[in-house]
Write a structure and sequence with these properties.
420 residues; alpha/beta; nine-stranded mixed β-sheet; two-stranded antiparallel sheet; 16 helices; disordered N terminus
Protein backbone atom coordinates (compact mmCIF):
# COMPACT_ATOMS: atom_id res chain seq x y z
CA UNK A 1 0.00 0.00 0.00
CA UNK A 2 2.78 2.46 0.87
CA UNK A 3 4.52 2.06 -2.50
CA UNK A 4 1.17 2.67 -4.22
CA UNK A 5 0.83 6.03 -2.54
CA UNK A 6 4.42 6.94 -3.29
CA UNK A 7 3.88 6.43 -6.99
CA UNK A 8 0.34 7.50 -7.74
CA UNK A 9 -1.96 10.31 -6.65
CA UNK A 10 -4.86 8.27 -5.25
CA UNK A 11 -7.80 10.64 -5.86
CA UNK A 12 -9.50 9.11 -8.88
CA UNK A 13 -11.61 11.86 -10.40
CA UNK A 14 -11.62 13.45 -13.87
CA UNK A 15 -11.04 16.90 -12.37
CA UNK A 16 -8.86 16.16 -9.33
CA UNK A 17 -5.54 18.00 -9.18
CA UNK A 18 -2.75 16.81 -6.93
CA UNK A 19 -1.71 20.42 -6.35
CA UNK A 20 -5.00 21.13 -4.57
CA UNK A 21 -4.04 18.60 -1.91
CA UNK A 22 -0.26 19.00 -1.78
CA UNK A 23 0.71 22.54 -2.76
CA UNK A 24 0.43 25.90 -1.00
CA UNK A 25 1.72 29.15 -2.45
CA UNK A 26 1.99 31.83 0.24
CA UNK A 27 2.25 35.58 -0.35
CA UNK A 28 3.44 36.94 2.98
CA UNK A 29 3.21 40.57 1.84
CA UNK A 30 -0.49 40.09 1.10
CA UNK A 31 -1.41 37.58 3.84
CA UNK A 32 -2.81 35.23 1.20
CA UNK A 33 -2.41 31.62 0.13
CA UNK A 34 -3.48 29.51 -2.86
CA UNK A 35 -3.19 25.91 -3.99
CA UNK A 36 -0.77 26.80 -6.78
CA UNK A 37 0.62 30.07 -8.08
CA UNK A 38 -1.88 30.28 -10.97
CA UNK A 39 -5.15 30.19 -9.08
CA UNK A 40 -7.02 32.64 -6.89
CA UNK A 41 -5.51 33.30 -3.48
CA UNK A 42 -7.40 33.47 -0.21
CA UNK A 43 -6.94 35.46 2.99
CA UNK A 44 -4.93 33.84 5.77
CA UNK A 45 -6.21 34.46 9.28
CA UNK A 46 -3.34 36.40 10.91
CA UNK A 47 -4.16 34.72 14.19
CA UNK A 48 -4.11 31.23 12.69
CA UNK A 49 -1.30 31.20 10.14
CA UNK A 50 -0.79 27.42 10.42
CA UNK A 51 -4.19 26.87 8.76
CA UNK A 52 -3.00 28.39 5.44
CA UNK A 53 -3.26 25.04 3.64
CA UNK A 54 -6.79 24.25 4.81
CA UNK A 55 -8.65 27.48 4.25
CA UNK A 56 -12.40 27.01 3.66
CA UNK A 57 -12.13 27.84 -0.05
CA UNK A 58 -9.35 25.29 -0.59
CA UNK A 59 -11.38 22.60 1.16
CA UNK A 60 -14.39 23.49 -1.00
CA UNK A 61 -12.30 23.08 -4.18
CA UNK A 62 -11.11 19.65 -3.02
CA UNK A 63 -14.68 18.59 -2.28
CA UNK A 64 -15.83 19.64 -5.75
CA UNK A 65 -12.97 17.74 -7.37
CA UNK A 66 -13.85 14.61 -5.40
CA UNK A 67 -17.28 14.86 -7.05
CA UNK A 68 -15.76 15.21 -10.52
CA UNK A 69 -16.48 18.94 -10.73
CA UNK A 70 -14.13 21.81 -11.49
CA UNK A 71 -13.80 24.59 -8.89
CA UNK A 72 -16.14 27.51 -9.37
CA UNK A 73 -15.52 29.97 -12.21
CA UNK A 74 -12.87 32.66 -11.77
CA UNK A 75 -10.91 30.70 -9.18
CA UNK A 76 -8.06 30.13 -11.62
CA UNK A 77 -8.46 26.49 -12.56
CA UNK A 78 -9.79 27.74 -15.90
CA UNK A 79 -6.13 27.86 -16.94
CA UNK A 80 -5.91 24.06 -17.07
CA UNK A 81 -9.56 23.54 -18.00
CA UNK A 82 -9.18 25.64 -21.16
CA UNK A 83 -6.13 23.65 -22.21
CA UNK A 84 -7.86 20.32 -21.57
CA UNK A 85 -11.07 21.45 -23.28
CA UNK A 86 -8.91 22.26 -26.32
CA UNK A 87 -7.47 18.74 -26.30
CA UNK A 88 -4.18 19.81 -24.73
CA UNK A 89 -1.97 18.44 -21.95
CA UNK A 90 -2.36 20.69 -18.91
CA UNK A 91 -0.31 21.31 -15.79
CA UNK A 92 -2.98 19.45 -13.84
CA UNK A 93 -2.41 16.30 -15.89
CA UNK A 94 1.36 16.75 -15.63
CA UNK A 95 1.30 17.28 -11.85
CA UNK A 96 -0.91 14.26 -11.21
CA UNK A 97 1.88 12.02 -12.53
CA UNK A 98 4.54 13.32 -10.12
CA UNK A 99 5.25 10.66 -7.45
CA UNK A 100 6.11 11.12 -3.79
CA UNK A 101 3.88 14.11 -3.01
CA UNK A 102 0.96 12.43 -1.25
CA UNK A 103 -0.23 14.08 2.02
CA UNK A 104 -0.09 11.62 4.87
CA UNK A 105 -3.87 11.82 5.44
CA UNK A 106 -4.53 10.20 2.05
CA UNK A 107 -2.77 7.03 3.16
CA UNK A 108 -5.80 6.25 5.34
CA UNK A 109 -8.60 8.11 3.58
CA UNK A 110 -8.58 8.90 -0.14
CA UNK A 111 -11.44 11.36 0.39
CA UNK A 112 -9.66 13.45 3.02
CA UNK A 113 -9.91 17.19 2.37
CA UNK A 114 -8.09 18.52 5.45
CA UNK A 115 -4.50 17.57 4.75
CA UNK A 116 -0.85 18.40 5.43
CA UNK A 117 1.00 20.29 2.67
CA UNK A 118 3.93 18.66 0.93
CA UNK A 119 5.00 21.60 -1.27
CA UNK A 120 5.42 25.12 0.06
CA UNK A 121 6.08 28.02 -2.30
CA UNK A 122 6.85 31.28 -0.55
CA UNK A 123 6.85 34.88 -1.74
CA UNK A 124 8.42 36.47 1.31
CA UNK A 125 9.55 39.96 0.29
CA UNK A 126 9.42 42.27 -2.71
CA UNK A 127 13.16 43.03 -2.77
CA UNK A 128 14.09 42.84 -6.46
CA UNK A 129 16.53 44.37 -8.93
CA UNK A 130 14.22 44.05 -11.96
CA UNK A 131 10.94 45.64 -13.03
CA UNK A 132 9.25 43.04 -15.23
CA UNK A 133 6.34 44.34 -17.26
CA UNK A 134 3.90 41.72 -15.91
CA UNK A 135 4.89 42.27 -12.27
CA UNK A 136 3.72 44.74 -9.62
CA UNK A 137 5.08 46.56 -6.59
CA UNK A 138 3.94 43.83 -4.20
CA UNK A 139 6.62 41.62 -5.78
CA UNK A 140 9.18 44.18 -6.99
CA UNK A 141 10.79 46.91 -4.92
CA UNK A 142 12.07 48.43 -8.17
CA UNK A 143 8.51 48.89 -9.42
CA UNK A 144 7.56 50.24 -6.00
CA UNK A 145 10.33 52.85 -6.28
CA UNK A 146 9.23 53.66 -9.83
CA UNK A 147 5.64 54.21 -8.67
CA UNK A 148 6.87 56.43 -5.85
CA UNK A 149 8.72 58.56 -8.40
CA UNK A 150 6.17 58.76 -11.22
CA UNK A 151 2.89 58.11 -9.48
CA UNK A 152 0.52 55.23 -9.83
CA UNK A 153 -0.49 54.47 -13.35
CA UNK A 154 -4.21 54.82 -12.72
CA UNK A 155 -3.67 58.41 -11.65
CA UNK A 156 -2.60 59.17 -15.22
CA UNK A 157 -4.96 56.99 -17.24
CA UNK A 158 -8.10 55.04 -16.49
CA UNK A 159 -7.57 52.71 -19.44
CA UNK A 160 -5.33 50.32 -17.53
CA UNK A 161 -3.91 50.19 -14.02
CA UNK A 162 -0.27 49.49 -13.32
CA UNK A 163 -0.79 49.52 -9.59
CA UNK A 164 -2.88 47.04 -7.63
CA UNK A 165 -4.36 48.47 -4.45
CA UNK A 166 -2.59 46.91 -1.50
CA UNK A 167 -4.62 44.81 0.87
CA UNK A 168 -4.05 45.23 4.58
CA UNK A 169 -0.95 43.26 5.41
CA UNK A 170 0.61 41.74 8.48
CA UNK A 171 4.09 41.70 7.06
CA UNK A 172 6.28 41.21 10.11
CA UNK A 173 3.92 38.83 11.88
CA UNK A 174 3.38 36.68 8.78
CA UNK A 175 7.12 36.48 8.15
CA UNK A 176 7.76 35.36 11.71
CA UNK A 177 4.86 32.91 11.66
CA UNK A 178 6.11 31.34 8.43
CA UNK A 179 9.59 30.78 9.84
CA UNK A 180 8.08 29.23 12.97
CA UNK A 181 5.90 26.94 10.85
CA UNK A 182 8.88 25.93 8.69
CA UNK A 183 10.96 25.17 11.77
CA UNK A 184 8.24 22.82 13.00
CA UNK A 185 7.36 21.20 9.66
CA UNK A 186 10.38 21.19 7.34
CA UNK A 187 11.10 17.52 7.93
CA UNK A 188 7.72 16.58 6.48
CA UNK A 189 8.06 18.65 3.30
CA UNK A 190 8.86 17.21 -0.11
CA UNK A 191 9.60 20.55 -1.77
CA UNK A 192 10.32 24.10 -0.60
CA UNK A 193 10.22 26.85 -3.23
CA UNK A 194 11.73 30.25 -2.45
CA UNK A 195 10.72 33.09 -4.75
CA UNK A 196 11.12 36.84 -4.82
CA UNK A 197 11.33 39.52 -5.79
CA UNK A 198 14.82 38.20 -6.38
CA UNK A 199 15.68 35.46 -3.92
CA UNK A 200 19.48 35.81 -4.03
CA UNK A 201 19.30 39.36 -2.64
CA UNK A 202 16.79 38.54 0.10
CA UNK A 203 19.50 37.91 2.65
CA UNK A 204 17.46 37.68 5.83
CA UNK A 205 15.16 35.06 4.28
CA UNK A 206 18.02 32.91 2.99
CA UNK A 207 20.02 33.14 6.19
CA UNK A 208 17.07 32.12 8.36
CA UNK A 209 15.89 29.33 6.06
CA UNK A 210 19.44 28.02 5.73
CA UNK A 211 19.79 28.06 9.53
CA UNK A 212 16.69 25.86 9.80
CA UNK A 213 18.03 23.50 7.12
CA UNK A 214 21.33 23.22 8.97
CA UNK A 215 19.67 22.42 12.29
CA UNK A 216 16.83 20.27 10.98
CA UNK A 217 18.08 18.36 7.93
CA UNK A 218 15.66 16.58 5.61
CA UNK A 219 17.54 14.27 3.27
CA UNK A 220 14.45 13.98 1.06
CA UNK A 221 13.76 17.72 0.71
CA UNK A 222 13.98 19.30 -2.72
CA UNK A 223 14.92 22.96 -2.24
CA UNK A 224 13.98 25.09 -5.23
CA UNK A 225 15.14 28.69 -5.64
CA UNK A 226 13.69 30.83 -8.40
CA UNK A 227 16.03 33.55 -9.62
CA UNK A 228 16.38 36.10 -12.39
CA UNK A 229 20.10 35.15 -12.55
CA UNK A 230 21.10 38.79 -12.20
CA UNK A 231 21.97 39.09 -8.53
CA UNK A 232 25.47 40.46 -7.78
CA UNK A 233 28.00 37.69 -8.30
CA UNK A 234 29.33 37.87 -4.72
CA UNK A 235 25.89 36.87 -3.44
CA UNK A 236 25.03 34.37 -6.14
CA UNK A 237 28.21 32.29 -5.78
CA UNK A 238 28.31 32.58 -1.99
CA UNK A 239 24.80 31.16 -1.61
CA UNK A 240 25.39 28.54 -4.29
CA UNK A 241 28.42 27.22 -2.40
CA UNK A 242 26.42 27.10 0.81
CA UNK A 243 23.62 25.17 -0.87
CA UNK A 244 26.10 22.74 -2.42
CA UNK A 245 27.39 22.00 1.06
CA UNK A 246 23.82 21.29 2.23
CA UNK A 247 23.28 18.88 -0.64
CA UNK A 248 26.57 17.01 -0.29
CA UNK A 249 26.13 16.70 3.48
CA UNK A 250 22.52 15.42 3.02
CA UNK A 251 20.85 18.31 4.81
CA UNK A 252 18.66 18.35 1.69
CA UNK A 253 18.00 15.72 -0.95
CA UNK A 254 18.68 17.94 -3.93
CA UNK A 255 18.70 21.53 -5.08
CA UNK A 256 16.62 22.88 -7.96
CA UNK A 257 17.82 26.15 -9.42
CA UNK A 258 15.11 27.71 -11.59
CA UNK A 259 15.99 30.50 -13.97
CA UNK A 260 13.13 32.89 -14.67
CA UNK A 261 13.56 33.86 -18.33
CA UNK A 262 10.92 34.19 -21.03
CA UNK A 263 12.62 34.73 -24.40
CA UNK A 264 15.93 36.12 -25.65
CA UNK A 265 17.54 39.27 -26.99
CA UNK A 266 16.60 42.94 -26.46
CA UNK A 267 12.95 41.91 -26.29
CA UNK A 268 13.69 40.00 -23.08
CA UNK A 269 15.66 42.89 -21.62
CA UNK A 270 12.61 45.09 -22.26
CA UNK A 271 10.15 42.61 -20.74
CA UNK A 272 12.39 42.08 -17.70
CA UNK A 273 13.51 45.68 -17.32
CA UNK A 274 16.99 45.88 -15.79
CA UNK A 275 18.05 42.41 -16.95
CA UNK A 276 21.57 41.79 -18.26
CA UNK A 277 21.45 38.70 -20.48
CA UNK A 278 25.25 38.34 -20.51
CA UNK A 279 25.27 37.95 -16.73
CA UNK A 280 22.31 35.58 -16.91
CA UNK A 281 24.15 33.37 -19.37
CA UNK A 282 27.29 33.39 -17.19
CA UNK A 283 25.29 32.03 -14.25
CA UNK A 284 23.39 29.60 -16.46
CA UNK A 285 26.63 28.23 -17.91
CA UNK A 286 28.03 27.76 -14.40
CA UNK A 287 24.87 25.95 -13.25
CA UNK A 288 24.86 23.71 -16.33
CA UNK A 289 28.39 22.55 -15.47
CA UNK A 290 27.43 21.39 -11.97
CA UNK A 291 26.91 17.72 -11.15
CA UNK A 292 23.29 16.63 -11.33
CA UNK A 293 23.80 14.67 -8.12
CA UNK A 294 23.22 17.95 -6.24
CA UNK A 295 21.88 20.52 -8.73
CA UNK A 296 18.92 20.26 -11.08
CA UNK A 297 18.62 23.17 -13.49
CA UNK A 298 15.28 24.49 -14.72
CA UNK A 299 13.86 27.30 -16.83
CA UNK A 300 10.53 28.89 -16.00
CA UNK A 301 9.11 31.26 -18.60
CA UNK A 302 6.07 33.46 -18.94
CA UNK A 303 4.40 33.44 -22.34
CA UNK A 304 2.97 36.78 -23.41
CA UNK A 305 2.41 38.82 -26.55
CA UNK A 306 5.89 40.30 -26.05
CA UNK A 307 7.79 37.02 -25.67
CA UNK A 308 6.42 34.58 -28.26
CA UNK A 309 8.37 35.93 -31.23
CA UNK A 310 11.78 35.35 -29.59
CA UNK A 311 10.96 32.20 -27.63
CA UNK A 312 12.76 30.12 -30.30
CA UNK A 313 16.05 31.85 -29.43
CA UNK A 314 15.56 30.91 -25.78
CA UNK A 315 14.85 27.29 -26.69
CA UNK A 316 18.05 27.23 -28.75
CA UNK A 317 19.98 28.46 -25.69
CA UNK A 318 18.45 25.75 -23.52
CA UNK A 319 19.34 23.09 -26.10
CA UNK A 320 22.92 24.36 -26.14
CA UNK A 321 23.36 23.76 -22.42
CA UNK A 322 21.35 20.54 -22.11
CA UNK A 323 23.62 18.48 -24.38
CA UNK A 324 25.14 16.70 -21.38
CA UNK A 325 22.39 17.15 -18.80
CA UNK A 326 18.66 17.47 -18.30
CA UNK A 327 17.21 20.98 -18.01
CA UNK A 328 13.60 21.24 -16.89
CA UNK A 329 11.51 23.59 -19.00
CA UNK A 330 8.30 25.01 -17.52
CA UNK A 331 6.03 27.79 -18.69
CA UNK A 332 2.68 29.49 -18.29
CA UNK A 333 0.76 32.25 -20.00
CA UNK A 334 0.89 35.68 -18.40
CA UNK A 335 -1.45 36.18 -15.45
CA UNK A 336 -2.85 39.30 -13.83
CA UNK A 337 -2.60 41.56 -16.88
CA UNK A 338 -5.22 40.31 -19.40
CA UNK A 339 -4.14 42.84 -22.01
CA UNK A 340 -0.70 41.18 -22.21
CA UNK A 341 -2.18 37.76 -22.99
CA UNK A 342 -1.62 36.59 -26.58
CA UNK A 343 -5.26 35.53 -26.90
CA UNK A 344 -6.30 39.18 -27.43
CA UNK A 345 -4.84 38.89 -30.96
CA UNK A 346 -5.96 36.72 -33.86
CA UNK A 347 -4.16 33.37 -33.77
CA UNK A 348 -2.72 33.97 -37.25
CA UNK A 349 -0.24 36.32 -35.54
CA UNK A 350 1.27 33.38 -33.62
CA UNK A 351 0.73 30.45 -35.98
CA UNK A 352 4.18 30.37 -37.59
CA UNK A 353 5.88 31.05 -34.25
CA UNK A 354 4.35 27.96 -32.67
CA UNK A 355 5.30 25.84 -35.65
CA UNK A 356 8.93 26.84 -35.04
CA UNK A 357 8.67 26.48 -31.27
CA UNK A 358 7.13 23.00 -31.36
CA UNK A 359 9.62 21.82 -33.96
CA UNK A 360 12.47 22.90 -31.68
CA UNK A 361 10.93 21.10 -28.70
CA UNK A 362 10.54 17.75 -30.39
CA UNK A 363 12.57 15.02 -28.74
CA UNK A 364 12.69 11.30 -28.11
CA UNK A 365 13.00 11.18 -24.32
CA UNK A 366 10.38 11.54 -21.59
CA UNK A 367 11.29 15.05 -20.49
CA UNK A 368 11.39 16.43 -24.01
CA UNK A 369 8.07 14.79 -24.88
CA UNK A 370 6.48 16.17 -21.70
CA UNK A 371 7.67 19.68 -22.48
CA UNK A 372 6.49 19.35 -26.06
CA UNK A 373 3.05 18.14 -24.97
CA UNK A 374 2.58 20.98 -22.51
CA UNK A 375 3.60 23.55 -25.13
CA UNK A 376 1.24 21.87 -27.60
CA UNK A 377 -1.47 22.38 -25.00
CA UNK A 378 -0.70 26.13 -24.91
CA UNK A 379 -0.90 26.22 -28.72
CA UNK A 380 -4.25 24.42 -28.79
CA UNK A 381 -5.64 26.69 -26.09
CA UNK A 382 -4.64 29.78 -28.09
CA UNK A 383 -6.05 28.34 -31.31
CA UNK A 384 -9.39 27.86 -29.56
CA UNK A 385 -9.47 31.17 -27.65
CA UNK A 386 -7.60 33.80 -29.66
CA UNK A 387 -9.84 36.62 -30.86
CA UNK A 388 -8.81 40.16 -31.66
CA UNK A 389 -9.91 42.43 -28.84
CA UNK A 390 -9.36 46.05 -29.85
CA UNK A 391 -10.15 47.37 -26.36
CA UNK A 392 -7.50 45.23 -24.68
CA UNK A 393 -5.01 45.95 -27.48
CA UNK A 394 -5.52 49.68 -26.84
CA UNK A 395 -4.92 49.03 -23.14
CA UNK A 396 -1.71 47.18 -23.98
CA UNK A 397 -0.49 50.10 -26.10
CA UNK A 398 -1.34 52.60 -23.34
CA UNK A 399 0.49 50.46 -20.79
CA UNK A 400 3.64 50.10 -22.91
CA UNK A 401 3.59 53.82 -23.77
CA UNK A 402 3.58 54.63 -20.06
CA UNK A 403 6.46 52.25 -19.40
CA UNK A 404 8.39 53.91 -22.23
CA UNK A 405 7.74 57.31 -20.66
CA UNK A 406 9.10 56.11 -17.35
CA UNK A 407 12.03 54.08 -18.63
CA UNK A 408 13.17 55.90 -21.77
CA UNK A 409 12.42 52.90 -24.01
CA UNK A 410 10.51 52.49 -27.28
CA UNK A 411 8.40 49.36 -27.52
CA UNK A 412 7.31 49.90 -31.12
CA UNK A 413 10.78 49.17 -32.46
CA UNK A 414 10.96 45.84 -30.59
CA UNK A 415 7.37 44.64 -30.96
CA UNK A 416 6.05 45.96 -34.29
CA UNK A 417 3.75 42.93 -34.53
CA UNK A 418 1.65 44.42 -31.73
CA UNK A 419 0.60 47.34 -33.93
CA UNK A 420 -2.53 46.04 -35.61
Amino acid sequence: MTSYFKNKFPVNSPTACQSKWTWSTIWLNEAKSSSCHRVKSWNIDPDNFANFHNLPEKIEDRQRMLQGQWPEEKRGCEYCKKIEDSGGYSDRLHNNNIPGLIPKELYKDKTATIVTPRIIEIFAQNTCNLACIYCNEDLSSKIEAENNRYGRFNERSEKVALYREKVKTYKEKMYSDFLTWLEDNIQGLARLHLLGGETFIQHDLLEKVFDIIERKPNKHLQLNIFSNFNAPSKFFYRYMNQIKNFATSKNIGRFDLTCSVDCWGPEQEYVRSGLNLELLEEYFSYAAEQDESWLWLNVNQTISSMTIKTMPQLIEKIKKYKINRHIGHYFQTVDGFPFQHPQIFDYSLWEKDFEIILNLLKGNNYHADDTFNRMLGIKKMLEANCKQDDTKIAQLHAYLDELDRRRGTYWRSLFPHLIV
